[in-house]
Amino acid sequence: MNEEVYWVWLTTTLGSSSPAIPKILYKLTPRGAYALSREALGVLGFEEKIVDKLSDKSLERAERIVEKCREKNIKIVHSESPEYPTLLHRLKDKPHVIYVRGDITCLKGRYTSAFIGTRKMSERGREHAERVANSLINEGYLLVSGIAEGIDSVAAKVSLSRGEPTVAVLGVDIDKYFPKINEKLIDRVAETGAVISEYPPDTNARYFPSRNRIIVGLSHIVNVIEAPVGSGALIAAKLALKRATPTFALNLPGDNFEGCRQLIALGAEEIEGSIASTQEEIKQVKSAEIPDEVQGTRRYIWEKLLTGEQSENSLVDAHHPIAEILCALTELELDGYIKALPGGKYALKQK
């Protein structure tokens, strides 16, 4: 009988990431574990509750899973297979069998980045997600996501648009679609990269938090694009920080990025361009608030002060001589828009 059946029997009997499996594999093959009697298993020193489970010798479910995988062109990849992703071996709770649609070997020889964030993506989040995704691909990274709505989907869509493989990790059975709205996207990912799950067909699984360890495990680095407080993306990011996986977060203003800022406080690095982008966006927003009557040199000074305190000399340039700057500063101060600071500097007055 095909070895796959025994791997499926072992992992469905005990659980794919059961801590007992490494102990069993240290002494036996899955076929060997199946062949041994209760007494023989006990002699080898396995716990009684593990012996009880392994004493169920029915292969009916395992055979049904293997047959369904063949029908649906789903590969069964076990932890001792050469196709098994090398990075997953780092996980103490690695899945000893993964089910794959597509070609999991697309990971071989590639640097990988987890790409995660909120399902309730803002338009600004989408724009930055596309920018960061393209930048990572330009640097040679293959993107790994949970293929959820929002930020996850951007990773898949940008990769596909660039003709690059991407990997999606499901929190449901390998032959199910979740979210249903991403059915076509999931199929396209399977055509060019790989869709994987630790859950075989007919499991009726919906374990989204647990798939985060696989997303992180498959990744050399982790990028969090947009995440409010309470976002599921933070589970994966905190797991990455705990495992010392380089973690990056986008630092932008607003509630939808509060989780990202928390990650930075915990040790994540800012995604390159975050601060510059933030300052530019703040400047654009505040520029729109400049009173209509503030024009010419006075508007020029206001816009400069949006970036922080300025001295008289720092405001002077080829188009704004010192006399013109001093006159405009005086007018702005008299009108109550700015205030003079020690050291000859000026700043906008807070509203």
Sheet bearing the most strands, described?
A: 9 strands, mixed
Q: Detail the poorly predicted runs.
A: 275-282
Find the CATH topology of the largest domain.
Rossmann fold
Number of strands: 12
What share of the residues lie within helices?
40-55%
Across the major sheet, the strand order is 1-2-6-5-4-3-7-8-9
Q: Hey, roughly how much beta strand do the residues contain?
A: 5-15%
**Number of continuous helical runs:** 16
Over the alpha carbons, how many angstroms does the gyration radius reach?
28 Å
> What overall geometry do the principal axes of the alpha carbons give?
elongated
Work out the count of structural domains: 3
Oligomer: single chain
- Strand-pairing-aware structural class: alpha/beta
Q: Gap between N and C termini, in Å?
A: 77 Å
**In CATH, what is the class of the largest domain?**
Alpha Beta
Question: Can you write the helix and strand succession as a string?
Answer: HHHHHHEEEHEHEHEHEHEHEHHEHHEE
Model description:
The chain is an alpha/beta fold and 351 residues long. It has three domains: 3-71; 104-275, Rossmann fold, CATH 3.40.50.450; 290-348, Arc Repressor Mutant, subunit A (Orthogonal Bundle). Helices cover 45% and strands 13% of the residues. It is built from 16 helices and twelve strands. It has helices at residues 3-14, 20-27, 30-35, 38-43, 48-54, 60-71, 123-138, 151-161, 183-192, 208-217, 233-242, 258-266, 274-287, 296-305, 312-315, 322-334; strands spanning 75-78, 97-102, 111-116, 141-145, 167-169, 194-197, 221-224, 247-249, 269-270, 310-311, 338-341, 345-348. The strands form two sheets. It has a nine-stranded mixed sheet, sandwiched between helices. A three-stranded antiparallel sheet has the order 10-12-11. α8 (151-161) packs across α9 (183-192) and α11 (233-242) runs parallel beside α12 (258-266).
